[in-house]
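Appendix B. One record, verbatim.
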Amino acid sequence: MLATSGHRSHRPRQTVGLPQETAALATKPVRPKSPHLFSGPLALHYRWSAAMTVSILHRATGSGMATVGSLLLVWFLAALASGAEAYATFRDVFTLSDGRLNILGWIIGVGLTFSLFQHMMSGIRHLVLDTGAAFELKLNRNLARLTFVGSTLLTLAFWLYVGTK
């Protein structure tokens, strides 16, 4: 009597000479795959959630601020150390002749500001989670959504404040 096993090789397993209950165990159906694997035509077992997005954005904003911020700081300091002409070139990349931000200045400025506030709000959320609180599904979902609301409102408030100065 041949029976198939749940092993990856899918080779039939010989059950001749084995006790009846052992032979029955060898013919059990294959167990389901891990829930993170695809099943069928790319069907996901998990629904995308705000918590997943917050987790990914926390990493992305941290890396983005570290990379872009460091490059801009080094460029700024090198321009300052190199003299007025180099600093004027640095300043002209991000501002118009009257001192207001140009489109690149707005994109970099608002992008870094939103990254800062999103990373901060996500960090506060993680701090709450580290205390053992907010693991209830509904509260966790709402806190994840609030990180987006809070970071957007803080970014708007910051740029409205800067714009009035």
